[in-house]
Amino acid sequence: MNTTNDKPIYIQVEPRYVNYVNRIMEGYEYLGVVSTLDRNKGLLIIRTTPDTISEVREILAHLPIEIQHVSVS
User: Fold this and answer.
1) How much is the pLDDT for 7?
2) pLDDT of amino acid 21
3) pLDDT of residue 73
4) Domain residues for 9?
5) Are the C-beta atoms of residues 56 and 44 closer than 8 Å to each other?
6) Lateral strand order in the sheet of 9-12
7) What is the pLDDT of residue 60?
8) Residue 5: which of 43, 55, 66 has the closest Cα?
9) % helix / strand / coil in the chain, to the nearest 5?
10) What confidence tens digit (pLDDT) does each residue in 3-46 have?
11) How many structural domains does the chain have?
């Protein structure tokens, strides 16, 4: 599978919120699986499926913290 919906979501949050984002995804029954790329920078990757990517984006948009979507090469 190689569609645009298969691309992971890369975000950056304040480092103190890394665990918070992970817990939110756990609470939503792992709609997305969170991995930390750089804890000191708050850089996260969220792996989704084509069926869950829209919901994960919607959840992230409504969290009461600042989230920056980033590109990772």
Assistant:
1) 83
2) 98
3) 73
4) 4-69
5) no
6) 33-38, 43-47, 9-12, 68-69
7) 98
8) 55
9) 35, 25, 40
10) 455 789 999 999 999 999 999 999 999 899 999 999 999 999 99
11) 1
CATH of the domain at 48: 3.30.70
* pLDDT at res. 38: 97
Contact criterion met (CB below 8 Å) for 44 and 10: yes
Rounded to 5 degrees, φ, ψ at 37 are -90, -35
Classify residue 57 by burial, with Cβ atoms within 10 Å: 0-12, 13-18, 19+.
Answer: middle
CB proximity list for 11: less than 8 A, separation 6 or greater:
21, 43, 44, 46, 60, 67, 68, 69, 70
Are residues 45 and 35 in contact, defined by beta-carbon separation less than 8 angstroms?
A: yes
Report the C-alpha dihedral over residues 46, 30, 57, 48, rounded to 10 degrees: 50
Which H or E element spans position 53? helix 53-61
CA distance 63 to 11: 13
